[in-house]
Amino acid sequence: MKKKFLGRLAVMFFLCGLVSGADAAINYTETWDSDLSGWGQNTIYTDVEWQPVGGNPGGFLHTTGTGGFTGAYTNKDELTGNYNFSNFIEVSVDLFSDSSTMPTVIRFRYKSPAYNGWYYPLGDVASSQWQTYSFEFNPSWSDNQAFAAGWSTDEGINPSYTTIVSFSETMSDVWSVEARGLRSGNLDIDNFKISPIPIPGAIWLFASGLAGVIVYRRKKQN
Ligand SMILES: [Ca+2]
Q1: Concatenated DSSP letters for 152-203?
Q2: What secondary structure letter does DSSP report for 81?
Q3: What is the 162 CA–ligand 1 centroid distance (Å)?
């Protein structure tokens, strides 16, 4: 009986480990309230300035492009690497285009600057006010699942670019994250957030149920 109890205890500790493991996957949130915070120009024709006020709220990134694109990118540790480990599944960002509407994508490059990676089109960013754009994904999707969810690649548009890398390969080795405006002009960026899978309620229920069983068994023994 004691062996059984210890076995159950081991299972419970294992489950607690799972829960805290999921808990360890944390949100990344960029508010730009003090500086550029590791983000910079996404093309050599883009100018990225940190502005202390006028964001949503506080500081924000003000980008101005003249070469047919604008926006900013980062390859900070928190946003790169294997998304299967970090469990990232959702992106949210506040955008504002102060000239006129700006078609914008969020792009994830694979491995190095030599690869274009995959991007998700957010549509035309509004010119009248800050607006939140968000989308969900699964790092293990097949290419067809990613395409069906609205994702795209530059290679799909121009086959002369570098070798096509699958969506899941890209998400297993992300080199950079970028908010890219698809024409010259202004794109302002604030509150970039990427979130992991929330702790499934079922794990909590199962763990607490198991704890209940153990308590019951112990009482029965006494
Ligand atoms: Ca801000």
Answers
A1: EEHHHH-TTSSPP--HHHHHHSEEEEEEEESSSEEEEEEEEEEEEPPPPHHH
A2: B
A3: 35
CA distance linking residue 198 with residue 201, whole number of Å: 9
Contact 72, 46 (CB under 8 A): yes
pTM: 0.78
From CA 210, how far away is CA 5, in angstroms rounded?
11
pLDDT digits (tens, 9 = 90+) for 154-212: 776 665 665 579 999 999 999 999 999 999 999 999 999 999 887 665 566 666 666 66
Q: What is the pLDDT, as a whole number, of residue 98?
A: 79
Contact in structure between 108 and 76 (CB atoms under 8 Å): no
Distance 116 CA to ligand 1 centre (A): 28
- 51 C-alpha to center of ligand 1: Å? 9
DSSP string for 6-39: HHHHHHHHHHHHHHHHHHHS--EEE--SSS-TT-
59 Cα: distance to centroid of ligand 1 (angstroms): 4
Q: Ligand 1 centroid to 95 CA: how many Å?
A: 11
Joined together, the tokens standing for residue 193 give 């957030």
Beta bridge partners of 167: none
Question: Residue 78 Cα, ligand 1 centroid: separation in angstroms?
Answer: 18
